[in-house]
Amino acid sequence: MAAGGKTKTAPEPDVEFDENGDELASIAEVPRLPGENLAAWKRRRKKKTRKLKKRIKALEAEIAAVREAKEAAEAALSYELTDDTETAVREAIKSGDTDLLSDLVSDLHPADFADLLERQNATGRDLIIEAAGDDFDPEVIPHLDDSVRETVVATLEPEVLADAVSKLDSDDALELIEKLDDADKAQVLDAIPDEERVLVEQGLTFAEGTAGRLMQREIVVVPEHWDVGQTIDYLRSMSTAPDDFYDLYVVDARYRPVGKIPLSLLLRNKRPIPVVDIMSTGFHKIPADMDKEEVAMLFRRYGLVSAPVIDEGEWLLGAITVDDVVDVIDEEAEEDLLRLGGVASDDLHGNLVETTRSRFIWLAVNLMTAIVASAVIGVFETTIEKIVALAILMPIVASMGGNAGTQTLTVAVRALAMRDISPTNAAKFVVKETMVGWLNGMAFALIAGVVTWAWFGDPDIAIVLAASMIINLVIAGLCGTLIPISLDKMNIDPAVASTVFLTTVTDVVGFFTFLGLAAVFLI
Predict the structure, then answer these.
(1) Closest CA to 254 of 299, 231, 221, 218
(2) Which of 253, 345, 394, 507 is the residue whose CA sits 20 to 30 A from 128?
């Protein structure tokens, strides 16, 4: 007991660590050096303590930094492909560090892995696939762009492709197989089990772009004499059940679908209830030869999650699920958008020569139509020479007509793609768009006329410009509907050819009306 009644406690021993962080000994237990007085020993111990605390603080900071980096990397790898991850992958590719690459891509979602591959050149893709090794997920392949998929598949051995086909759903496996050349296709088919090969070969018999190619063969089918309990027991014992499914199909003795049961409804009913009492009989059956665009329209219109696919005898073949339909809708929308711009396909990942060749054709067509419009201008060369203002103003008329026509054309092409235009409402649509062109023509004719009068101080030129603008916008609205509807009637994709025809019409009509009216009334 110390003076003053306070208890003096011994200080906790300080601990020293070696370079690996292993504990050495308590500083307090280090004996005093020979001839070292108490004050010197305390100073030495205090100095070592300060050094120890600095080292501990540095280690804690390093541990925190590593933990933070690990958490950030896990978050990035688990949910999305971040810029940091992509940068790290690029650096690993430059250094050829396959071990680091393997760590970076091992936990990526298949969609993110596919995105990463698409952003690399051929060398980078090969190195990433090599780094993934046996852990390469076949689910990556369906997510790849077509042009990139071809290069990736070309780097994989037939045995690896066969393993991928075996692990993929039948619809994804079929999409992979159909892109191979005949030699590789035969090798892969020979390498997969007989049962799976039969399903793939049957799928290849359907025409490309049909429901038969889109469907998956892994479905849950039960006979109509079963009850809920038998069905649940069957689901638990199935070894070939699809990974994800939404509906069960009830079939008769001839394997024709007679009912559909949502999985959620099955689980909410008691075991003794017969499946025929809870199944829905008013479901949509999709013929195997139905075009995939029609399938997407059916899903969209009726809000379907899945639908059975049948052959000509109504025998159940498989099912189409909404995730596959989303891909179809995305592909068709992208295709129409690209074609409206005169581009045959998404060539972001294509090579230079193929991209140039695909665009050359439409540019050549546009050149021919531009020559036609220029020929119209040439007819009025004398008129333009006499009134120079016409050369300044005539692009306005053509430009306004082209933009107005493109607006109408976009609405028409979309309506045709979505089957919103029918023989009963086509005339109404044409009249409406023509009236829209007339009203816009009147409004912009007034604006352009006032500006032209103020600009050149000639009311006659302003009147000619206003009149030609009204005519061209009315023609733009009329042709923006009639051209795609007519092409659709002739079984020509309106998204491909409509833009070229419409641009020619609006240019020719715009130049002809403006210069023609000027020749009649101003000269």
Answers:
(1) 221
(2) 345
Using H for helix, E for strand and C for coil, what is the string for 481-514? Answer: HHHHHHHHHCCCCHHHHHHHHHHHHHHHHHHHHH
Q: How many CB atoms lie within 10 A of CB 422?
A: 9
As a whole number, mean pLDDT of residues 237-260 equals 86
How many residues comprise the chain?
A: 523
Q: Closest by alpha carbon to 215, among 110, 311, 109?
A: 311
Using CA atoms, how far residue 423 sits from 131, 153, 412, 420, 480, in Å, is: 58, 46, 14, 10, 17
Backbone angles phi, psi at 471, to 5 degrees: -60, -45
pLDDT per position as a tens digit, 66-100? 666 656 555 544 456 777 788 888 888 888 888 88
Strand partners, 223: 251
Beta strands 306-310 and 316-321 are antiparallel
Least confident piece of the model among 10-24, 228-242, 347-361, 418-432: 10-24
Q: Find the mean pLDDT for residues 36-59.
A: 76
β-pairing, 247-251 with 257-262? antiparallel
pTM, two decimals, is 0.58
| Cβ contacts of 213 within 8 Å, gap of 6 or more | 171, 174, 175, 178, 203, 206, 207, 292
Instruction: Say if CB 481 and CB 429 are below 8 A apart.
Output: yes
**CA 166 and chain centroid, separation:** 25
**What residue type is assigned to position 435 of the chain?**
M
Is residue 444 within 8 A of residue 466, CB to CB? The reply is no
